[in-house]
Amino acid sequence: MRDIYAIRSYGKLGFLVISALMVAVFLYFSNNLVKDLAAQERERMQIWADATKEIVNASSMDDVDGFGGGNVEFLLSIIERNHTIPVLLTDDDGTILLHRNFDLPEPQDSLAPYYTSPVNEAFLEKKLEQLKGTNNVIEINIGPDNLQRLYYEDSTLLKRLSLYPYIQLLVMLAFIAVVYFAVTSTKTAEQNKVWVGLSKETAHQLGTPISSLMAWVELLESLGVDQETVAEISKDVNRLNTIASRFSKIGSQPQMEAADLNEVVERAASYMRTRISSRINLSIQLYPEALPVRVSAPLFEWVMENLIKNAVDAMDGSGSITVTTSADSAGNPYVEVADTGRGIPRKKQKTIFNPGYTTKKRGWGLGLTLAKRIIEQYHRGRIYVASSEPGRGTTFRIDLP
Fold first, then answer.
1. Against a cut of 0.70, is the pTM above it?
2. What is the average pLDDT across 85-108?
3. How open is the CA angle 98-103-105, to the nearest 5 degrees?
4. Distance in angstroms (rounded) separating the CA atoms of residues 373 and 190
5. Which of 107, 253, 334, 349 is most enclosed, with most CB atoms within 10 A?
């Protein structure tokens, strides 16, 4: 099962890597498309600038007819066809000579471009200052003492297309997030169904032999079998009945009851003390005052037993376990189970709660998974590794609301 979870982790990583590559490819092509369109617009502006230069040169010639009136009309048509790219034409001193395709604050005067309202003039001057800080400028060398500059903005289409890669990125990230969340939620839902089904089936399967054992205990009592022997058998039967009850509670929402955390923890730890090696010292340090909580005592005791069992397994037969109850600065109660065992490497401190994770040759690796489910889903608390150092031990902590 550890391999299955490792494969799932690699699968998630692979999905994220492939998604990142897809995003990079789309962004690459989108950016290239924007660059190509920007290059085309600059070429159009270069043609516009060349046409302006030719018209000025043509108008300065004595023999316009010799130059070719048709050519002048053609050049003028090039200038007039620009309806999308905002343009400012200035002289060498920065005086605006011509403007086209700007959304002016006030309606365009009929005398424009020979006359511009003060509001529009201020607007165009501001635009000119903005464009001076860009690369969207083409110098038009009319003559030795006549240098003009053509400033232009990106067209509306190019501006929208420039935003497209970012919009595309957000859409793709949202899609990836939705898919990832949907897959994760589906797996979680499937795991929950497995847990519920397994728990209910286990409780059901245990019910019949437990009932039969109870009847056998009563028969042994009636036959006059040694009472001490019958009492020990009865304890084990009751223990099986408790286990079945716990599994039945896992399959449904357990009932929470008011209790003192000290009493619940002490009962679970005292039960385990008589069932572990004498070479392991189990000590209980209880908070001096009552710690009122709402818990399902059978399930919480199950969590404590699992933590103590794991601590025993981590110590290879000898060491010490300390169970402590206390409250934080906000008054919220907590429990800590500290051992002097092998410790847990940092990279595995989160994976230990995955179903199937175990360091033992035998076992299902479900103890900590059950503990996490009981604490976090039923008690709305938190269970985690508070501290761990390889070779020196581990401390598990349970925070309760």
1. no
2. 80
3. 100
4. 15
5. 334
